[in-house]
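Chain A, query sequence.
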Amino acid sequence: MDHLLFLAQERAESVQLSLRSASSHLVHGLQSARDGAREAYNNSLEAIKQQRFSKELAERIRELLIKLKEAISAIRPSELYEKCLIFFLTEVTRTHIYFGGVCFLVGGFVGLAVGLRLRSCIVAPQRMRAVVANSYRGIEAIGIVEDVVAPRITEPNQVLIQVKAAGIDYLDIKIAEGYGRVLRKQLNKYNPNSDGEFPVVLGRDCSGIVVAVGKAVSRVEQGDEVWLAVPFYHPGTLSEYIVVSEDLVAPKPSKLTYEGAAALPYSIMMAWDALVSQGGLGPETSSGKRVLVHAGVTGVGVVAIQLVRAWGGNVTTTVSSRAAPLAHMLGADDVITYDNSNFDKELMLREKYDLILNTVGQVLHDSCLKYCVPGGVVVTTSASHLVSDSYGYVMGGLYSLYMRARYWFTKSPLVTGGRWATFEVNGTVLDAVLPLVDSGRLQAVVDKAYSAQDAEVAFAHVAKGEQIGKTVVRFSINSPVRNLGMAFWQDH
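Chain A, predicted structure.
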C-alpha cells in the first residue's frame, strides 16, 4: 500500500512539474505576444504621426490604440495560470471527471455512427443490364451487357423509370451503324449519366414504372405506369432503368400490357408527325381524304392505318400476302399485295391519293409522286441523312464549338421536343391518342417478344425486315436501384 502511495505521489509530482513547464511556456508565449502587440502599437503611433490625416481621425485612432494598449497590459499570464490551476484543484471533483469521460465516450460513439451512416450513403454507382452497341460496326456490335452504370436523376424535371418492356426500331440498327454519332458524342459531354461515346444504349420506346421523380415534375408520380419514346440522340430505352425529362413521359393506357405499350410510342410519334405535322390531317380534317400507306404492317404503318381510319379517312395499303388479313383487321379499306401482283399496275387502276406515306424509303419516291393528286403530300418516315455525320476534322471542330456555346447560353444541350431531330418527340402526343387506345381504335401489334438475354436474336429478327408490327424486349426481373440524385431533388 505504501508503495502504491509513493508511486501516486511521484506521478502527481511529475504531472505538476509538467504543468509548471507548460505554464512557463504559455507565460513566455503570452509575454512575447504582448511585447509584439506593444511594438505594433508604437509603430502604429509613429506611422500616424508621419501621415497627413485630419486631426479628428488621428485622435480617434490614437484613442483606440490607447485602449488596446490598456487591454494588453491588463493581461497577466501568471495570474491566469494560477486561477486555472486553483479552479481545477479545488472545484473539479471526481464526479465531474467521470461525467466528462462518459460524455466524451458517448459523443465519440455518436460521431462514429453518424460518420459510418454518411459513408454508407456514398455508394459506388450500381450497374444494370442494357442492350448496347459497343462500336459502329452494325448488327455485329450489338450485345447485352450487365455492367452499364445505372442512371440517376440530375435535374429537377427528370423521371427515373424502371423499364418493363422496350421496343426495337429499325432506326436502332442504323444507330449501331453510326447514325447520329457526331451529335450524340457532343451531347454526351454534357450528360452526367453518360460516360463517353460508348456503349450506346439502343431502343426508342418503352413502358415501365416510375421509381423516382425530380422536384419540379408534375405530370407523373412515383409508382405510376408510363410509356414513352426518346429521340435518336437520347440514351436508349433497352435497359433496366432510364432517366428522361418529364415531357417525354405519359401515363400508360390501362388496357395495354407492358409489351403492347412498348410497341407503340415511337411509331405513334413518327406517324403523328407524318400525318398531322406534315400532312395536315387530323380528327377534323381527315374525313373523305384518300391516304396510301406503303408497307402498312410496319410499326409506323400499323399506327398510321388506324389513325386515318379513326379520323374518318379512306386508307389503301401495300403489304405482303401473309400480312393482308392483319391489314384488313386494322381497318384498311383497300389492301394491295406486292408479292403476288404488280402493285404499280394496281395503283394505276385507282384514284390518286391526297397523302402518301412512304415507310420504305427513297426507292419508292418517284412512284409516290406519280400517284399523288396535284397539291397532295408525300411524306417519308425513313431516317434522313444527318449532315453532321459527314463532318470532317475542321467542320467537326466548329460543330463542337457551336455545341459548347449553345450549352453555356442555354445550360441545356439535351433539349427535348425533338429540336435536334427531324420530328417532335413529346409525351403530349401520347396523351392525344390515349382516347383512341382506350376505345380500342388504336391497338398495338407485337410481332415477337424476347427476353433481355435474347436481345441479339431479337435484333437479327428485325434486321431481316420481316417483322409485322413491332418486336419487343422484356425486362421481367429488375433489381432495385439506389438513386442518389433523387434524394437531392426531393429534399432540397
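Residues 150 and 421 are 25 Å apart (CA to CA). The two ends are 65 Å apart (CA to CA).
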